[in-house]
Specification:
five-stranded parallel β-sheet; five-stranded antiparallel β-sheet; alpha/beta
Amino acid sequence: MDYTLINAYHESYYYTRFPIDIINKLGYMGHNGGQEKAYDMAGVEIRYLSDQNKFLIDLEIEGEGFLSLYIGDFSIKQINLHNGLNEIREVVHDRFIELNPKGKTYPSNLFRIRLEPGYKLSKITLHDKSAKKYNSNLKTCVYYGSSFTEGAGSLSNAYSYANLSTTFLKVDSYNKGLSGNCLCEETTCDYLATLNPDFYILELGCNMRGYMDEDEFNKRVDYLFNSLKGKKVFVISSLTFFVKQFKIFGDKAPYQEKNISFSKILEKLANKYNFVLINMTDLMTELSDVSYDMLHPSQIGHLKIAYNLYLKIKDRI
């Protein structure tokens, strides 16, 4: 294989963001949507060093969506994908070749193909004979969380808070967000511990409030934190934003009692394990930072989370 694949496994017909044996155990009380979300290509990236002046790669997918092309630190364009075979033949601009600009994070001959959620990837065929694998020397971060982390509310996964914050931090990220299904199963927690990145960012609280009571939430988060004990961990308490901003809705505010109780549990457990707790109220600051569904961060919300998160952790990693 002449390319490097970030954040994906190929153990079955499709590529996945979790090993198959972990995917089969995702879920709680009949809520098994995570088994499907693990096939979403959120934050998966194909990388290779090349002497060519254009992308020469085929991707076979199931579904529809798009991807983003980069060379080094520089963005090129988004390309729409259709069901079946997609031939990517995008020429790099002559001015880029002539000037050969040096990026701060990646070399100028690194071809990067960043994938999006919403489709399944079944096959990668690289036609570039000059291609070589790229071994990064950057620090690594693992993200785990809900649809916030997977990228919902962002118009492109490239502009989700998980990707933007690691762009600011100049680290490589592994996005393990599961939309609607961040449920802290024991097997998932054990798996996350084996990844052993330089640091973790855990966005917790949102999904579990709809599926379980306080005792179950406490037990599961305690197991996750214990699995990562001794590692560098930043915990985003996502529900504090709704506790604060949704007061104006009074009795209409959804899950407000659990928003409060789950936030207190996260604070208690973060203190117990000496993890850094970051309240979402310090990342998103006003109600308009969520999209029209009154839940997911808007595009500007993702940007604010990313930048404020960067400011909070940049001197701690």
